[in-house]
Design goal:
Shape: elongated
Number of helices: 6
Structural class: mainly alpha
Radius of gyration: 19 Å
Strand content: 5-15%
Strand order of the largest sheet: 1-2
Length: 145
């Protein structure tokens, strides 16, 4: 079989996206661990910072967790005083999840370190490539949503 040459195909985009997700999550978990929260909890807090007053289902969707796991996540954040729940005035059966001042303070504390992590991730890209990367990720997400 001498002379047969095989070339390895590059990894699939899905595999590469998953690799980036896992390494980002690992670094983010390490970064926020001193505050007693996880990367998933941090993500939920950032979602509430952008869109405060979400239902559990909306928060689960926007935080990339299942509806079943959001209940435990919210309970934990509420127990820490980082979020609060209150009745939706338009639908009294629905509870809305809101960021507390303590939650906002925690996010403010990590704003710089999280920005540094993002900058580290794209430091070998030009500013234009960084913007193109952000645009490509957004378009990929929209295509699959």
């Amino acid at each position: 079989m001498a002379g047969i040459r095989t070339t390895k195909a590059p990894p699939s985009l899905l595999y590469m996206v998953k690799q980036v997700e896992l390494v980002v999550r690992s670094h983010l978990d390490e970064l926020v661990r001193p505050s007693g929260i996880t990367a998933l909890q941090y993500t939920a807090l950032t979602v509430l910072e952008r869109h405060d007053g979400l239902s559990a289902a909306q928060l689960a969707r926007d935080s990339f967790v299942t509806a079943q796991s959001i209940a435990d996540l919210v309970r934990s954040l509420e127990g820490r005083g980082l979020v609060r729940r209150e009745r939706n005035p338009r639908n009294r059966r629905e509870l809305l999840i809101l960021l507390t001042e303590e939650g906002r303070a925690l996010l403010a504390r990590y704003e710089g370190p999280v920005r540094e992590l993002e900058e580290r991730m794209v430091r070998d890209l030009t500013a234009h490539q960084g913007e193109q990367f952000r645009l490509a990720l957004s378009k990929a997400w929209q295509a699959l949503s």
